[in-house]
Amino acid sequence: QVQLVESGGGLVQPGGSLRLSCAASGFTLDDYAIGWFRQAPEKEREGVSCIFSNNVSTYYTDSVKGRFTISRNNAKNTLYLQMNSLKPEDTAVYYCAADPRARLCLPYFDSWGQGTQVTVSS
Prior knowledge:
Elements: E1 3-7, E2 10-12, E3 18-25, E4 33-39, E5 46-51, E6 58-60, E7 68-73, E8 78-83, E9 92-99, E10 111-112, E11 116-120
C-alpha cells in the first residue's frame, strides 16, 4: 500500500526558506514518478516539481525555477523540496504525490499525501 507523509511546512517571511519532506512507503521511489503539487485558496492544484521514473528528467513550473530544488534520498525513500527566496504567492497547501506511469507533472497522480501548509507572510 502506497503511503506518502509530508512534513516541513510552516510560516516564513518573504525571502525565507523551507524544506519539505515526503516519507514514502509501500513502493520504491526509483520505480515511480514522484512530485510536489500545491493548491492555493480558490485556485486549481498545480504541479510544482516532479521527478520521473526514468531517473533523468525533472520538471519545474516556471514560477519556481531557480528558487526551488527537488531531490530524493533513495536509501531513506524520501522526497524533498528545498524552497528558497519564498514569495507570498507561494502560499498554498503542498502535496506529495506518486504514480508508476506518469510522464507529465499534472495533478492526476494515483497516490497523494495529506498535504502540508506553507504560508509566506510578513
